[in-house]
Write a structure and sequence with these properties.
This protein is α+β, with helices and mostly antiparallel strands and about 375 residues long. The protein has eleven helices and 18 strands.
Length: about 375
Amino acid sequence: MSKPRVAVVFGGRNSEHAVSLMGAGSVLEAIDRSKYEVVPIGIAQDGRWVLAAGDQRYAIEDGKLPVVDTSGAELALPSGEAALVAYEPGSIPVELGTVDVVFPVMHGPFAEDGTIQGLLEMAGVRYVGSGVLASAVGMDKAYMKAILAAAGLPVGPYVVVRERDWRLDKDRVVKEVEQLGWPVFVKPARAGSSQGISKAHDLASLETAVEFAQAHDPKVLVEAAIVGREIECAVLESLGDEPPAASTPGEVLVEGGQEFFDFEAKYYPDQMSLTVPADIPAETAEELRAMAVRAFEALGCEGLSRVDFFYTPDGRLILNEINTMPGFTSLSVAPQLWAASGLTYAQLVERLIQLALGRKAGLR
């Protein structure tokens, strides 16, 4: 019998292109080649799908972020066929065979936000991770917070700033933001990896921060600053009928002098540390784990998610956000949390592939 064919898809048309490549490098190293046939597929920054070159570099080198090498054959995934087709100008398209499951190690808009999930649904291909709706809601922080609050989970105060309102009714928007109190955090509603985020201490810096966030997304979220420690928990879907499992919680500490957990702190060496288990009371850790699973189920997530909390000095837990495809290098937070909980990175990758292979294509 032939081995199941796993297409690892990475890259994409957004500012998290490099983050995706770094995660894909770890996944490609971890997949058991004795069990699976692996096809690495890069999505270039201009949207082209290409068969990744064998010597593709996936890490930050000399301060330079990796990008998809476009020298390989271009690919297409015809709708409803689950078959890869390679084509080059002046050549007859060549079918490369069917794909059993796609592992989309992708982040941000046009990737993690339900768009690639919708494409794969249309093509009839199984894939790792959450479906279209959960991915879209998890990417849009405004709708995410609305769903989490509706599920009875504690979220911090926030204001949604839409491009039209900021342009035509800025005074009203500013008054709403001022009610949050200063400082505030300003971020793109649909971006990740701390891209486009800044901290505003007054009206002047608010205007600069909104314009900076709008460079990534016309829809912006302004959040009240919450004093507290950042505690994170990963959630993993069960292979059977058991409920999702929550990892041991861990605390993220910024070591590089940044004012908050920004892009450099997340992805450059020696900028952050993770303490696992987090030094919090046992009953608080159990409450946090239960809340993480509730958030996972409220959005209808599948596969893996990471849920981020603030633990305030007065002992409250406030849910910051859920990531339906968290950073996925072997040194990223979610894999580290599972490693501390007894599941190695290779075992985590295997579990996610098995979950996807066991899921039927289409509505479920």
